[in-house]
Amino acid sequence: MFGNGVQVSIDVPSPAVYCPGQPVSLQAMGNTAGFPITYNWSAGNPDIQIIGGNSPNVTIKAPAGMHTVQLIASNGFCADTASASFTVRPAVEIELPGGSATVCADSVTLTLAPIGPVNVVWLNANQDTLGTTIVITLPVDSAVQYIVTAVDSFNCISTDTAFLNSAGINLSVTTPPPAALCAGLPVVLQAGIGGSGLPVNYSWSSIDPNVQIMGGNSSSVTVTAPAGTHVITVVAQNDFCIDSTEVTLEIQDVQYLDGDLTLDLCKGLDVGFSYTGNLPVSWDFDDNNNSNQGL
Q: Looking at the structure, do residues 149 and 198 belong to the same domain, yes or no?
């Protein structure tokens, strides 16, 4: 009587840890009793690819994580099973704030997805070293590229690249000088933006119902307001970002000098008049010659 038994095992290195993208090579070992053996490798994870699944030696491509494969070896009379577990290390991955590559601020804080202890180096597109920390804050003033290289405790090396675009608005407002802010007179406010140059929609407003804003959806508006302190709010928005700012206008009341001033002057004597306020002034000496200059 002859033995037809099959004894099979899988040769797995120790530790069974592989780097990202590294193929996993497994080999069937054991006693075949001299009969031809049929091998059937399988894995419960559909993301695992087994190359050469009917031979004793297979190559496996698997995503990051811990995986187990099964082997059935049969000689037509008997069969045996074996399994092997291995781990594929995750690759370094840059986590973008909010998951978006479009940045509204002047800088961005990048961090790495947790993969355990690693040594990292951040580079720009020119391969200049920017830092060696897990979390790093970097400028974004246009379309930029940042690269990180990581080496983990198993000496696995992986890289990731972040392509970032700036859509920031950087809103500002230009106002006339204080001397030009008079009650009832139009005041022109001009919004300015920087950064991406993307089309921007504007919205101007004031909580004071006595403030009139003409052209409230454009970058330049004309404001007419009574005397007092008024806060004008402007909101600028593009397809990605929003920015706002406030402008405080100190509107002065119009001042008049009522009544006539009569002076007895000596012939040939120069007389000067002066106004000590901060408003524009016009002098009228009833000689059909209005002037901003004294007599």
A: no
Average pLDDT over residues 122-129: 95
- Domain range enclosing 237: 172-251
Q: Indicate whether 265 belongs to any domain.
A: no
pLDDT band at 75; cut points 50, 70, 90: confident
Higher pLDDT, residue 54 or 61 = 61
253 has a pLDDT exceeding 80: yes
The number of residues in the chain equals 295
Bridge partners (DSSP) of residue 118 are: 152
178 DSSP 8-state letter:
G
- Bin 178: left if φ > 0, else alpha if -120 < ψ < 50, else beta: alpha
Q: What is the pTM of this model?
A: 0.68
Cβ(227)–Cβ(252) below 8 Å: yes
Q: What is the CATH number of the domain that holds 117?
A: 2.60.40.10
At 220-243, the pLDDT tens digits run 999 999 999 999 999 999 999 999
Output helix, strand, coil percentages for the chain, rounded to the nearest 5.
0, 45, 50
pLDDT at 292 exceeding the cut of 90: no
User: Rounded to an integer, what distance in angstroms lies between the CA atom of residue 222 and that of residue 215?
Assistant: 7
In a domain, 262, yes or no: no
Quick one: 12 and 84 in the same domain?
A: yes
Last residue of a domain, one of 123, 143, 166: 166
Comparing C-alpha atoms, which of 98, 124, 93 is closest to residue 109?
A: 98
- The residue ranges of DSSP E strands in 32-143, in sequence order, are 38-43, 49-51, 57-61, 65-74, 79-88, 94-95, 102-103, 107-112, 118-124, 129-131, 136-139
